[in-house]
């Protein structure tokens, strides 16, 4: 078999020389005609060349600042983005990106776990107490609860109980986040024009000289306490202004956290048609910014 004088084609080592020469010519031709394609071949062979033209990458961040990016990373990112799964041979090599501080695009797999969302909180306060009843009837007492948590409060198994056992009210239903829960004594006519969330017996009623009220959940855990056993903190038995809480997230046993209805913001009518000096089922007239 004839050939160039310096090649003896009967010798395997000369075949290798010829093959390497042809490969080199091919690569040089590729670089001159298609630089991007050649870079991919070289990247596959583990050879780094660059830089890559602007826009030929998929790195999150400053796409205009190519000068600070490693060409090897850019080529890898391009391959990853364009051939995510159909071309295993072009998968990025871990060694090509190790030690890089450049933010990487993750295709198909999220390496950062999603942040877990906090469970919705259930925060219910004893929010308003009409221990004095209404102008129509001193016996028409009512109590308002307020959910200042971020999720609905299911009240099955909850109780609102005085320290002396009366009232002792089993609660039912649900209070949505930011919602109010009106408990009317005996029947729904206590606040004639506002539907009660619950009507219940108050036993011998709320004593005018004070009570300690405990709101407990279905495990028996106290969720809110208003210790006014030495006397109510606010409200008036003469003009029937209710006792409104200022901040549901602050202790209900602090006297300064309560005030009488301001007689400006009032809601509802009693069974005799008189305007209620309180806000049953609605935002308190004295409430702070935390209350809806
Ligand atoms: Ca009512
Ligand atoms: Ca209210």
Explain this structure:
The chain is an alpha+beta fold and about 290 residues long. Among the domains are: about 35-95, no CATH class; about 125-260, Immunoglobulin-like (Sandwich). Helix content is about 15%, strand content about 15%. It contains 4 helices and 12 strands; from the N terminus they run ααααββββββββββββ. It has helices at about 10-35, 35-45, 70-80, 95, and strands at about 125-130, 140-145, 155, 160, 170, 175, 180-185, 200, 210-215, 220-225, 245, 260. Strands 8-7-2-1-11-12 form a 6-stranded mixed β-sheet, with no helix packed on it. Strands 5-4-9-10 form a 4-stranded antiparallel β-sheet, with no helix packed on it. The longest helix has 22 residues, at about 10-35. One calcium ion (CA) binds near residues 128, 144, 282 and 284.
Set out the fold topology.
Layout: H1 12-33, H2 35-44, H3 71-82, H4 94-97, E1 124-130, E2 142-147, E3 153-154, E4 159-162, E5 168-170, E6 174-175, E7 180-185, E8 198-200, E9 212-216, E10 222-227, E11 243-245, E12 258-260
Helix pairs in contact: 1-2
The structure holds calcium ion (CA) (2 copies).
Q: Briefly, what CATH class of the domain at 124-260?
A: Mainly Beta
Tell me the major beta sheet.
Answer: 6 strands, mixed
Strands of the widest sheet, in order across it, are: 8-7-2-1-11-12
Strand segment count: 12
What's the short version?
The chain is 16% helix and 17% strand.
Note the main attributes of this structure.
4 helices, Immunoglobulin-like, four-stranded antiparallel beta sheet, alpha+beta, binds calcium ion, six-stranded mixed beta sheet, 292 residues
């Amino acid at each position: 078999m004839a050939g160039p004088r310096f090649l003896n084609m009967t010798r395997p080592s000369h075949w290798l020389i010829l093959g390497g020469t042809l490969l080199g010519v091919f690569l040089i031709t590729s670089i001159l005609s298609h630089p991007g394609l050649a870079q991919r071949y070289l990247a596959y062979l583990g050879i780094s060349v660059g830089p890559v033209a602007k826009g030929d990458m998929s790195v999150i961040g400053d796409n205009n600042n190519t000068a600070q990016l490693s060409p090897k990373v850019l080529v890898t990112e391009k391959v990853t983005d364009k051939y995510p799964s159909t071309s295993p041979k072009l998968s990025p090599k871990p060694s090509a990106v190790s030690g890089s501080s450049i933010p990487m695009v993750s295709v198909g797999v999220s390496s950062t776990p999603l942040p877990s969302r906090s469970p919705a909180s259930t925060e219910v306060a004893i929010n308003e107490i009409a221990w004095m009843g209404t102008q129509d009837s001193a016996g028409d007492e009512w109590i308002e609860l307020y959910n200042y948590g971020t999720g609905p409060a299911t009240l099955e198994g909850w109780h609102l109980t005085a320290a002396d056992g009366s009232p002792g009210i089993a609660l039912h239903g649900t209070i949505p986040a930011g919602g109010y829960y009106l408990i009317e004594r005996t029947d729904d006519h206590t606040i004639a024009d506002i539907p009660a969330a619950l009507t219940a017996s108050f036993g011998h009623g709320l004593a005018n000289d004070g009570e300690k009220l405990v709101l407990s959940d279905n495990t028996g855990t106290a969720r809110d306490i208003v210790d006014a056993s030495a006397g109510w903190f606010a409200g008036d038995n003469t003009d029937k202004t209710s006792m409104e809480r200022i901040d549901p997230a602050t202790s209900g046993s602090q006297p300064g956290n309560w005030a009488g209805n301001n007689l400006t913001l009032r809601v509802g009518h009693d069974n005799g048609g008189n305007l209620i000096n309180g806000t049953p089922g609605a935002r308190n007239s004295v409430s702070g910014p935390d209350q809806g």
